[in-house]
Amino acid sequence: MIQIKHVDKWYGPNFQALKDCTTSVLKGEVVVVCGPSGSGKSTLIKCVNALEPIQGGEIILDGIRVNDPKTDLPKLRSRVGMVFQHFELFPHLRIVDNLCLAQEKVLGRKHDDAVAKGMKLLERVGLTEHAKKYPAELSGGQQQRVAIARALAMDPIAMLFDEPTSALDPEMISEVLDVMVDLAREGMTMMVVTHEMGFANKVADRVIFMDRGEIVEDAKKADFFGKPRSDRAQKFLSKILSH
Amino acid sequence: MNYNWNWHIFLEPNPMGTGTYLDLLLAGLVLTIKTALLAWIIALIFGSVIGVLRTLPSRAASWIGFCWVEFFRNMPLLVQLFLWFFVLPELLPKAAGLWLKQLPNAPFWTAAIGVGLFMSARVAVQLQAGISSLPRGQRQAATALGLTTFQTYRYVLLPMAFRIILPPLTSEFLNTIKNTAVAITIGLIELTGQARSMQEFSFQVFEAFTAATVLYLLLNFIVVTAMRWLERYVAIPGYISGK
Amino acid sequence: MLGSFDFDVIRRSLPYLFFEGMRFTLTLTALAAVGGLVFGTLIALMRLSGYRLLGRVAGFYVDFMRSLPLVLVIFWFYFLVPYIGQWLTGASRPITVGAFASSLITFIMFEAAYFSEIMRAGIQSISKGQPAAASALGLTYGQSMRYVVLPQAFRNMLPVLLTQTIVLFQDTSLVYVLSIPDFLGAASKVAQRDGRLVEMYLFAALVYFTISCVASYCVRRLQARIAIVR
Fold this sequence. Notes:
The complex is a heterotrimer of chains A (about 240), B (about 240) and C (about 230).
Chain A: E1 2-11, E2 15-25, E3 30-34, H1 41-48, E4 56-61, E5 64-65, H2 73-78, E6 80-83, H3 95-105, H4 111-124, H5 140-152, E7 158-162, H6 170-185, E8 190-193, H7 197-203, E9 206-211, E10 214-220, H8 221-226, H9 231-241
Parallel strand pairs in A: 3-8, 3-9, 6-7, 7-8
Antiparallel strand pairs in A: 1-2, 1-4, 4-5, 9-10
Helix pairs in contact in A: 3-4, 3-5, 4-5, 5-6
Chain B: H1 21-55, H2 59-73, H3 77-91, H4 94-101, H5 106-133, H6 136-144, H7 149-164, H8 166-179, H9 191-202, H10 205-234
Chain C: H1 8-48, H2 52-67, H3 70-89, H4 99-125, H5 129-136, H6 141-171, H7 183-194, H8 197-229
């Protein structure tokens, strides 16, 4: 589904954010990407739908080369859902309109159909009664659930999560993770940047560990938690699991 | 102060034979409003385009925007009006120049367009600041949903940016009204111009200027009140801007 | 087509344009900026003083000035200052005030309203802890303003103050309405005397543009440096 081959990314001439990154995500697979801050994990996931351009290598999404100038990026992006650290709901639109905007403007769905689809997904994330509210009237956890619903409304073939819980207060993390776990169990292809090792343990197929722009470890979940091969991964794990 | 106040002067007939001196001032007020409104429309249209250009990733676009803003910001408005009024017709091909010079109401059109373009640079700067103040993730979220750049601006960035810059836009609109007075130098007899001619005809200088002052204050008050109402009307529940 | 223009008129009038016109413009700009800053700071302090009446008066002054077109204010002071002078000196007739003095008073009073808003924002940008720390050290209100708050506010606001001064530099061209030979006035005089409007106004535009561009470039550089130091 997602193939990442020898990807290099530079910010300016002096800082290489990604160094020769190669990995892939199969259909229905859940891959968790972790690593210390500044390790390039968010950058990597943003390269998958070309929010960040890459300077070397290639990324292939469902058979289409992302970094090909001829690729219709808006169309490609509309098929991949993305959830952001800071939710990024559109503050001037009601919840239901947040869910409908791209359905109508990108997929060309009729308003009524878009609303019906949106309401179905709101029900799924348990927020039906908030449809008429504005984002700022919801808690962080609720906003993030709306953001997931917004992405799902596009009927994505895969979902990208960029630290979906790290801007949340602790008591709201589980309500978001629950939605994600359900999604994973339904067979959604997911690439998740997160520090939530509990989530990784529960549903991930593979875990990728990144450090300083490199993929240091790319292993089956059991192998990763059982016996990570690199020192850096071991150190990282002991740090975040020690609490 | 040995000055002969005569507040009845307003009700005396003016030497133009167009009614009283008060009628003269009110005609000036109407012309001020007309010029300011047309100038403001021009400023909003060009300012929005240039403001957006400056926030596009394209180097060329932001360079064009930069040049526009620098050109109109670094010359006194008075000099700009002289350029449009005295210089431009001479630099054009003969026929076009002649047509411009014989245009009825030339001072009005020159003032509206000149002030409008002058203010467009300021509107552009405000809009650019407004767009840049939005979280970067907003643009990314819209892009990730598959919206095109145009749609991203139309449905996501601009609705928020304009809400944020509504207070500074109010003062720019007030500046537009005030700046129309500069057009007195190219023969536009707007409110300040009428006060000045009333002073010249009647020698009641302080009455004339007091009346003009009161009318400007009134105009300010109306605009501020209207804009406050507009701010409340477009306010988003739960959203606290900037602070 | 440009053949019918005579750009030599610029060269011939250069001494007049710069030694008379530009000197007037620059002196007026500099003195009005300093005066406006002093009065503006006083007005800002009045507004933030906590004395209701004082704050109201200052606030009214600022709002009033900012509601009026500069052209109208220039006319106001031009006619009013002789009477105020008469009232102050007790003379029997309105005193004669020179073009420069009249313009200077106008611009100081007008710019004070704008500078005061900048200084107010600057003072408010200083964290409440600073004056608190100053008074904890035993400084009086005046001392804490003079030695602690104002220097910081001034420093933070320096780029904005300078930008406003560039606006002021451009605005001084409006003394044209009083037929005073500032730079633009001088250019206009030559233009009308020799019938060379196009040449003179283009040249005037170029000079204003160059000076403003260079000045605002310097302000941007300064801003970047301040940002680093902070």
